[in-house]
Amino acid sequence: MALLAANCATALALSDTQQLVVEAWRLVNQSYVDPGRFETVHWKRLRQKALEQPINSSGDAYDAIESMLTPLGDPYTRLLRPADYATLRSNTQGTVTGVGLQLGLRSNDQAVVVIAPLDGSPAAEALIPSGAEVLQVDGQDTGLLGLERTAAALRGPAGSRVLVQLNMQGQPREVELERREVELRPVRSKRLRVGEHTLGYLRITQFSEPVPQDVQEALADLNSKAIEGLILDLRNNSGGLVSAGLAVADDLLNGEPIVETQDRDGLSSPQQANPGMLFDGPMLTLVNGGTASASEILAGALQDNGRSELVGAQTFGKGLIQTLIPLGDTSGLAVTVARYLTPSGRDIQHQGIAPDLVLPEPEPLDPGGEGDGWLDAAGRLLASRLEATL
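^ Peptidase S41, sequence as received from the core. Prediction below:
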């Protein structure tokens, strides 16, 4: 009984900010995809070391949580400070304020790189390409900032400006961008005329909450225009809500497998499309190095099931799934909770998906816009496939 009382007294002695550290440790401990990693990094000892630091404010707690998570070596399992958590939540709902750069970490050296610029954003207007390395933000070295703090440094009040130093294929470039609210408009569609054929064009720039409904409406509109084939454009789609990606796959596959997820216990959960499709004609899907995560799930399912060839360039290679977990003070955690495999069993983490047809460089900087040579090539290819079936 004395030991129990001592343990209770210790628990009661923890301050609110210390409890935040303990809660973060507990949430990761119960949900992280690779519990075997805990033994390697001495996970319980990391919690103790974090609590041994002076934790007198929320900022101290955040620093302690970040130092506790770093040894896991998973850049996607991370603390989201209040502003970061609010921004990520708003992104999944279809709005963002900032310069419109979607960032990731390069697998070989953990450098902060551009996955893709958002359509219509200051970054897109400045022609910042996928793969560009972000070196500094307002004079701050991104190697010291890390992924989340680099993203936070790029955000700010609409109308304010930020100076970004980049490395684009060995060429240094400095660009000043004005922050503003960017309406994501994640789904765009139009009818294309290629020779004697009428094609539909459907571009999805990210998977947010409105996307499944928007895609259904876009496909209904395109079907009403008697399209013969469909070009799905997933270029620079860095992912988002996996559930939204699965819903779109369900619209384009007829009862076929979509993806298999593997949780921390090694249990597999196959996801299957329902019978029926919203469009059952021929398809081609455009992908590039900015195609990542949920969009790779969709692309992999279409390719593996023979529903659509992929054309363009190798995809990004993010085969891990995260969940967002709120902490009690408006901050939150992103925690890797599962791996995924394409229907044929491919693990694309750090590998990406190879397209069936590689399109020539240079890659168009304005997907779907004027002078998009890749879209023209896809249109000609799909038209030729239609003629071959006549």
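The first strand starts at residue 78 and ends at 80.
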